[in-house]
Amino acid sequence: MRIHILTNQGQWARGFNDFFPLFKWEKALNQAGFWFDYFYNQAHPKLFQCDQLWVDYRYFSSFFDTTDHNKEIKPVIDFLVQAKAKIGSLVLFDTSDGSGSQCLILTQFVDLHLKKQLYKDLNQYTIDCGDKGFMCWIPNDATPSNIKYYTTTKGHLHKFKLSWNIGMVDYRYFPLSKYYPIGTSKLFPSKFNFIKTTNPNSQRDLLTSYRGSTSNDTRYSFQRAAIIEFIKKFGPNPKIKAGKYIKKEAYLKEMSLSQISFSPFGWGEVCYRDFEIFLSGSVLVKPNMEHLDTYPNYYFPNETYIPLKWDMSDLSEVFNDLVTTPKSDLQAIASRGQELFIEAQSSSDNFVNHFKEMLNT
Fold first, then answer.
1. Where are the alpha helices (DSSP H) in the chain?
2. What is the CA radius of gyration of the chain?
3. Separation between Cα atoms, residue 207 and residue 238, nearest integer Å
4. pLDDT for 64
5. 190 pLDDT band (50/70/90 cuts)?
6. How far apart (Å, rounded) are the C-alpha atoms in residues 193 and 338?
7. Based on CB atoms within 10 Å of each CB, which residue in 91, 101, 114, 349 is the most buried?
8. Contact yes or no for 245/211 (Cβ under 8 A)
9. Best CA proximity match to 292, nearest among 42, 170, 125
10. d(C-alpha 245, C-alpha 28), whole Å
11. Is the CATH number 3.90.1520 carried by domain 2-167+348-359?
């Protein structure tokens, strides 16, 4: 199957993590009968010379970033209708950060709608709940986005399929990586078949660490702000490291010395910090993930991570319980999360099988 991908994300650019598994497992995918070409202009004469066309929703980001959707949506729909008439299979590659979606209005015009995480209850995509449609965990008094939320209909729910999340990327520290974006781009993808981790049983001098800041958007920040305020209550404490961002090498070192680490939701539920925590061998403490399906699935409550309520009201209780939990129990949780992360990073068979199932081939 020849697959063409229309995207505005450069193959050699930093942060090209949405497509990184296709580079990492390219040989295995080729052997399974899948071949890929990338296009950056919808007018390219060879764009439709394929068996299947994927349209990266970020390619039409100007539509999703505006409140005047009526002005922007017609050209998008016209292109999708044109594409569907010229090829056998049209796919919307939705890399939205969260389980919600900004582009449900486009589902009706494609054959498949791929997302890296989906609501377990797909009927959620048929319900107009405003900002909560984008980010279901936000509190009722969160700052409104004023971006119109579209829904789809039950007749299109069969089109939704799981793609893959950002847990397929290598999150280690690399010297000079700001100049050489390895680990997320097409540069040296095979380098990351075997990743280096910190053993959960290693000496850990810190109870916890948390580095991060907040923004004026409460949808993004309220969980982060709750953690920051909670940690501030401890005051200066040699067992707790907190504050704003530090250099990545020092940040990962702190995490590898911490028994537990927090990873709140941001724009989406699955976060880079989750995988940095798995690498470090620390225990992942995170808002509950049981509402979603994702691939790879690293999230099993009290087995691979410790769940928190979305409103963070149990933060103190959970933290106090963890402080008194035997280290061996914490290490078992950290070990299991790390094992699943390594397995997903190391097995081309798993990814290729998932890819086949995703496309029903």
1. 20-24, 26-31, 61-64, 69-86, 131-134, 218-232, 248-256, 272-280, 315-323, 327-346, 348-359
2. 21
3. 9
4. 58
5. low
6. 15
7. 101
8. yes
9. 125
10. 38
11. no
CATH class of 180-346: alpha beta
Q: Contact 4/90 with Cβ under 8 angstroms? A: no
Looking from the CA of 18 toward its CB, the CA atoms found within 13 Å total: 24
Task: Show Cβ contacts of residue 222 under 8 Å, excluding neighbours closer than 6 positions.
Answer: 138, 139, 142, 312
| Domain residue spans of the chain | 2-167+348-359, 180-346
Share of the chain above pLDDT 90, in %: 62
Q: In what order do the strands lie in the sheet with 283-287?
A: 240-243, 206-211, 258-262, 283-287, 305-308
Q: Are 167 and 132 in contact (CB under 8 A)?
A: no
Q: Distance of CA 127 to CAs 6, 98, 122, 131, 133, Å?
A: 29, 16, 10, 12, 8
Which one, of 223, 355, 349, lies nearest residue 285 by Cα?
Answer: 223
User: How many Å apart are CA 22 and CA 355, to the nearest integer?
Assistant: 10
* CA atoms of 98 and 16, how far apart (whole Å): 18
Distance CA 289, CA 96 (A): 17
Distance CA 301, CA 197 (A): 22
Q: Round to whole Å and give the CA distance between 117 and 200.
A: 27
- Token pair of 209 as six digits: 């660490």
**For residues 181 and 39, which has the higher predicted lDDT (pLDDT)?**
39
pTM: 0.92
Beta-ladder partners of 260: 208, 283
Ranked by mean pLDDT, which of 3-17, 176-190, 236-250 comes out on top? 236-250
- 3-state secondary structure string, 112-164? EEEECEEECCHHHHHCCCCHHHHCCCCCCCCCCCCCCCCCCCHHHHHHEEECC
CB 350 within 8 A of CB 193: no
The single residue listed with the structure tokens 């579209």 is 150
Indicate whether 250 pLDDT > 60: yes
Helix, strand, coil percentages for the chain (3-state, nearest 5): 40, 15, 45
Average pLDDT of span 285-295: 97
Is-same-fold flag (2-167+348-359; 180-346)? Answer: yes
